[in-house]
Amino acid sequence: MEFRTPIKIEPFDFRIGHSTPGLLVGSCFTEHIGARLRRYKMPVAVNPFGIVFNPASVAATLRRLGSGAPYTADDLLRSGERWVSLDHHGSLCSTDRDATLETIGRAVAEGRKALQEARYAVLTFGTAWVYRHRKTGRIAANCHKLPASEFERERLSADDIVRTLLPVVERELEGKNVVLTVSPIRHLSDGHDGNMLSKATLIVAVHRLTELCPRCRYFPAYEIMNDDLRDYRFYERDMVHPSQTAIDYIWEAFRRTAVDEEASRLFDRLDALERAAAHRPFDPLGEEHLRFRQRMWREAQLLQQSHPHLDLSEEIKFFHP
User: Fold this and answer.
1) What is the fold, at CATH topology level, of the domain defined by 22-259?
2) Secondary structure letter of residue 87 according to DSSP
3) What is the pTM (predicted TM-score) of this model?
């Protein structure tokens, strides 16, 4: 008897590996996938402007990285003691206006370089609800705790999303494979009905994009969480965020769908090194443990020699007998 409905995902007709630079932009689910890729030393850049939840802000990020246009003091707002940008996460902002502009300038330069080098992009959308700044008319990627009266809340339609994203896919992401996904994280601040309406809008929009652009593929992270797993035990205690088990499960589905065989085999060897590094021996100075460290040191050296494009200096240093 089968008590679940596992989702069968057709492998993508392109594969990513350690020679395939990528750019990931979007909600905090993007951070989870990006963290896994970084852990396995894949050449990826993740959210140069910080976490972005809505499709309009994802598109705005890519347009800015494509143009490389610098931000100026006129682009910043004062929120309490901090100078903030509506396009950026709070981690890029500070109490000093010039320091904020300098940090944002570096993010633009690094993100532009990542966009130019990327051969694929992963775009993850969390919500179709947006907050438009009344004074500037700009959709905010982050409201930075500014007064609610300064914003107008609205929901993007599927047509709005397609009209916003399709030109970006065709111009800024020209020639790149694009993976679209809807974040499984629940936005209950929008209300249960508002969250469901938002997710449905996003799903309709991304499927239209895959129909309009052959380079776009859909990865069903939302469906895996809500149909395949379909149980509150796969959520954190807040009943909003997927648990680590759920993240692991979705990652493995992504790995099977998008990662090439050579990179996947290398992941297993890197996992073994990571588990070895986390091992806590009964006797750190004992002969058995010293032999174990020497074996792992040799393994790290062999990996480095066979994959010179990877940086295993930390692992080699850690296990050095």
Assistant:
1) Rossmann fold (3.40.50)
2) T
3) 0.93
